[in-house]
């Protein structure tokens, strides 16, 4: 890559505590913690977990609790949410939760915020019946969180304790130009969900950079697209491992959110042509292959996006193979140039 060496680009992990076939919820949570310990040694910058609800294949619904579990097992890795779905919650409660994490693990906690429900509409209503009103108040609630984390940290006599003065860094997460405009207006770092919603990536990054207003938290734009990575010794093995990822996303398309299945030799027996087309579109920013293949494709992606940091999601059935995929990615990123 000509414009930026890989040493300049930080790399991080998005984890959902994905449950695989034959695995318990406890297994999935322990594997997430194990992965965090491993990637910390590999030089990854962040380990984020995402809020999802009522999904048989994801165990990260109580996100802040899991973040504490991971933070306790690591020492330098930044731990955060990718993200907390703020319309599901009171800003004060989130400030208290993440303020507590920041008090226990100072200088290591990130708060990524999203607007999506993280579930279906029926479950979203069960979480918070007035969610639609809170969705409309998202920008104001981001400002409330900033206020609660500030040194003065008081809104109408109410303070987040713990939370006040912790200055937890806030990120805006999104998959559209709406989130790009908000992140730019507030002068906050921007993480884009290109691992499953890639359509507006380039447009959103342009909007964000063109409209960015410096803030107390950030003086210039900072973008972190998320991508899927399945790395292995050979392209053939990686493609085989990736059939689990493709089956899982087929479940997203059909609404069947089952535990992630093992790889298959012929995925065309699993999905229909229409499902295949939908999954292929969702996974267009996926890097599947050997070191050489991923390195080449990643170079093009970085040239196009000028990303400051990459966050990777690796949905692989076998936990040891998943750890190896992260090791392969770290090796690529620590080479002198990609």
Would you kindly provide a written description of the structure presented here, covering whatever features stand out?
This protein has 338 residues and is α/β, with parallel strands linked by helices. It has one domain: Luciferase-like domain (TIM Barrel, Alpha-Beta Barrel), CATH 3.20.20.30. Helices cover 44% and strands 15% of the residues. It has twelve helices and nine strands. The protein has helices at 25-41, 63-73, 91-104, 121-127, 131-136, 138-149, 177-186, 201-211, 235-254, 273-282, 291-305, 319-333, and strands at 10-15, 46-49, 78-85, 109-114, 170-174, 190-192, 223-231, 286-289, 309-313. It has an eight-stranded parallel beta barrel, surrounded by eight helices. α3 (91-104) links the parallel β3 (78-85) and β4. α1 crosses α2 (63-73), α1 (25-41) runs parallel beside α12 and α7 packs parallel to α8 (201-211). The longest helix has 20 residues, at 235-254. The relative contact order is 0.15. Residues 1-6 have low confidence and may be disordered.
């Amino acid at each position: 890559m000509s414009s930026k060496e890989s040493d300049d680009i930080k790399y991080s992990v998005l984890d959902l505590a994905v449950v695989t076939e034959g695995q318990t919820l406890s297994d999935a949570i322990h594997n997430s913690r194990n992965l965090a310990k491993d990637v910390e040694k590999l030089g990854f910058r962040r380990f984020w977990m995402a809020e999802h609800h009522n999904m048989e294949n994801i165990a990260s619904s109580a996100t802040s609790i899991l973040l504490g579990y991971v933070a306790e097992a690591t020492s330098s890795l930044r731990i955060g949410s990718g993200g907390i779905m703020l319309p599901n919650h009171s800003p004060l409660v989130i400030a208290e939760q993440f303020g507590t994490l920041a008090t226990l693990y100072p200088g290591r906690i990130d708060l990524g915020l999203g607007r999506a429900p993280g579930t279906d509409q029926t479950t979203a209503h069960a979480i918070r019946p007035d969610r639609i009103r809170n969705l409309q108040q998202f920008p104001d609630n981001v400002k409330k969180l900033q206020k609660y984390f500030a040194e003065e940290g008081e809104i109408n006599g109410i303070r987040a304790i713990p939370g006040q003065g912790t200055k937890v860094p806030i990120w805006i997460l999104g998959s559209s130009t709406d989130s790009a405009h908000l992140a730019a207006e507030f002068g906050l770092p921007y993480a884009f969900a290109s691992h499953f919603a890639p359509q507006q990536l380039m447009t959103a990054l342009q909007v964000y950079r063109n409209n960015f207003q410096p803030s107390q938290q950030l003086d210039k734009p900072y973008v972190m697209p998320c991508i899927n990575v399945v790395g292995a010794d050979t392209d053939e093995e990686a493609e085989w491992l990736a059939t689990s990822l493709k089956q899982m996303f087929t479940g997203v398309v059909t609404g069947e959110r089952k535990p992630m299945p093992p790889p298959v030799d012929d995925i065309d027996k699993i999905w229909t042509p229409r499902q295949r087309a939908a999954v292929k579109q969702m996974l267009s920013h996926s890097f599947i292959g050997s070191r050489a293949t991923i390195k080449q494709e990643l170079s093009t992606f970085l040239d196009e996006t000028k990303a400051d940091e990459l966050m990777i999601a690796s949905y692989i059935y076998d936990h040891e193979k998943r750890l190896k995929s992260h090791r392969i990615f770290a090796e690529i990123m620590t080479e002198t140039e990609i």
